Amino acid sequence: APAPPAQLRAFQRDLHSLRRLSQSLPWVTSRVFLQSAVCRMMAGAAPRRTQQLLDGSLRPRFNRSSIICGKERAQEGGGGEGERAVALYMACKYLPPAVLAAPGERAGMLAQAAATLQKIGHRSRLPHCYHLMKSVGTFSTPSAP
Predict the structure, then answer these.
(1) Is the pLDDT reported for residue 66 higher than 50?
(2) Are 142 and 105 a contacting pair, CB within 8 Å?
(3) Among 13, 47, 53, which Cα is nearest to 33's?
(4) Helices 105-120 and 81-94: crossing angle, nearest 10°?
(5) pLDDT band at residue 56 using 50, 70 and 90 as cut-offs
(6) According to the 3-state scheme, what is the secondary structure of 102-126?
(7) Is residue 84 within 8 Å of 92, Cβ to Cβ?
(8) For residue 78, is pLDDT > 60?
(9) At what angle do helices 81-94 and 47-58 cross, to 10 degrees?
């Protein structure tokens, strides 16, 4: 179900601000793609373009990289691993199965998202990923840390 109009407008305003920010901080671009996809999901839009936006958030964007920019990017939390994991999770959870090409693609995407979330220590999202893995029948109990 689409989000309430007031909530969608507020999210679109935030997304517009993020787009403006990405003009001076290029590493924010993958987050713009991810949040644009989320906005489309909130609006109940068609899944093909949403998938393209999620795919765009998975591509690394190092257009203006240098030693200094790379250092700043790491300090600002712009590594992008978390965004990529969330994009994989969102695609598996919200896009229709017909949009994902191969039958095992969803399982592989979820496994990659879970591994990344575990690697970066994102404990709050990891249970959601495991739950979705169970629901698509690809989950085996992870080994204890």
Answers:
(1) no
(2) no
(3) 53
(4) 150
(5) confident
(6) CCCHHHHHHHHHHHHHHHHCCCCCH
(7) no
(8) no
(9) 160
